[in-house]
Write a structure and sequence with these properties.
299 residues, alpha/beta, TIM Barrel, binds zinc ion
């Protein structure tokens, strides 16, 4: 059994130029949970000037009649975001920091060390009230400096765990990972921290390797994966590239190899097609276009 954290409503929509209404976002959340998704990153608490698609974060959460047993996370990047998150109705806090110094300098104008010095005390405080997942962006490569040192990934993991984070997600923010690298980093992670620390993987399909990377992660022992309905989203550093690994393609792959997901793929495909109709383009998801393999085998 694997679990999926659906990030399309946050990571996906945040990187789309078409802005959805609050009502559409709420409909999307409901369709996802109705399909069996139990874990979602629904919003981010960032300045609306920087990310207009997330301006209605609180409103989305308040308008959504969330079914029981659903975990909903909000992403925050700094103290102000964390405070907003803690005053909202989320059940889990996601925080994120890039492992690459060059990436942090370009995006946040500060070094990794300065960024962590600001973020970690807030994480420590928040972790007393809510479960915190730390997402380590650029864990597999940086668009500015290239290779990212595995020891830097482990050292940042250590700091977040020490501050009280209960789960770590290694993020391939700009689609630079390859399957062998994924296996190696996951093995290193488990040998350093043991297999009891929940570890998730977050891939973007920027270079077409996302599903191969998911499978490599699974074979190395990972059972938590982030994914985005329809493959929504994109990559701010490769404007023509596609988004996160596609949820329904990922679910389809696992069902084909007899790994359960707890998700109803038919309902998920209907949800993906509905969401696609809200955009003036087709979404990258492939099974939503080709149909399930098992359907073809029957006909
Ligand atoms: Zn992402």
């Amino acid at each position: 059994m694997i679990t999926i954290c659906e990030v399309g409503v946050r990571d996906g929509l945040q990187n789309e130029s078409t802005l959805l209404s609050t009502e559409q976002k709420v409909d999307m959340l409901s369709m996802l949970t109705d399909s069996g998704v139990t874990d979602l990153e629904a919003v981010s608490f960032v300045h609306p000037k920087h990310v207009p698609a997330m301006a209605d974060a609180e409103e989305v959460l308040l308008s959504w009649d969330r079914p029981a047993g659903i975990e909903v996370a909000g992403l925050a990047l700094n103290e102000r975001g964390i405070q907003r998150a803690l005053h909202s109705t989320i059940t889990k806090l996601h925080v994120s920091m890039a492992v690459s110094n060059a990436f942090n300098q370009k995006n946040s104008n500060c070094s990794v060390e300065e960024g962590l010095a600001n973020l970690l005390p807030n994480v420590q405080e928040a972790a007393e009230d809510i479960s915190v997942t730390a997402i380590l962006a650029t864990s597999f490569g940086c668009p500015f400096s290239g290779k990212v040192n595995e020891m830097d990934v482990l050292s940042m993991t250590e700091k977040f765990l020490h501050a009280g984070a209960s789960k770590i997600v290694l993020g391939d923010t700009t689609g630079m990972a390859n399957p062998y690298q994924v296996k190696q980093l996951v093995r290193l992670f488990y040998s350093q921290f043991g297999e009891n620390i929940p570890l998730g993987l977050h891939f973007h399909n920027t270079r077409g390797l996302a599903l191969a990377n998911v499978l490599a992660g699974y074979e190395a022992g990972v059972t938590h994966f982030d994914a985005s309905l329809g493959g929504l989203g994109g990559c701010p550093y490769a404007p023509l590239a596609v988004g996160n690994v596609c949820t329904e393609d990922l679910v389809h792959m696992f069902h084909e190899i007899d790994v359960t997901t707890g998700i109803n793929l038919d309902k998920l495909l209907t949800s993906a097609r509905t969401v696609e109709s809200w955009f003036p383009k087709s979404l990258p998801g492939m099974v939503m276009k080709a149909g399930k393999r098992s359907e073809l085998a029957r006909s």
